[in-house]
Amino acid sequence: MNADDAYLFREGTHARLYEHLGCHLDPKHGGARFGVWAPNARAVSVIGDWNGWRAGADKLAPRSDQTGIWEGHVAGVQRGQAYKFRIESNSGGHVGEKADPFAIASDRAPRRRGAVITSPAPAPIQPAPYPPAACGQ
């Protein structure tokens, strides 16, 4: 996401946020890029199949442009793995595990998890113990 994207995001007119937020596999470096809007967060991390759903294992960083977007690169992420965002609130220390609103594929409630995919065609999600969200490119 560049300065023009940030401007359009703040203005509320960005028509292609799906290219920047959510999960995008990174064939050049391996793993995946993650982005999520969490303007009132104190900390954001990604939990999923690749890290054993360990909180804080893969932390995201807030952008310096005051958009409220947190982003980062996570190694070890592969197509078909499930994930969620773990968001710690600035107020009261509330912690929640949130599904990715930009996920291309996801489970139905109550799991609300998705799968890392590389195309608009949904990948089947393998049953797993509750938690997860989805990742696409």
Overview of the molecule:
The chain has 137 residues and is mainly β. The protein has one domain (3-98): Immunoglobulin-like. 7% of the residues lie in helices and 28% in strands. A 7-stranded antiparallel beta sheet has the order 1-2-5-4-3-6-7, with no helix packed on it. The protein is globular and about 35 Å long.
The helicity comes to: under 10%
Q: Regarding quaternary structure, how should these chains be classified?
A: single chain
Counting structural domains, the number is 1
H-E order: HEEEEEEE
Number of helices: 1
Low-confidence stretches: 118-122
What overall geometry do the principal axes of the alpha carbons give?
globular
Q: What share of the residues does DSSP label as strand, in percent?
A: 25-35%
Biggest sheet features:
7 strands, antiparallel
Overall average pLDDT:
84
The assigned CATH architecture is Sandwich
Strand numbers in spatial order across the main sheet: 1-2-5-4-3-6-7
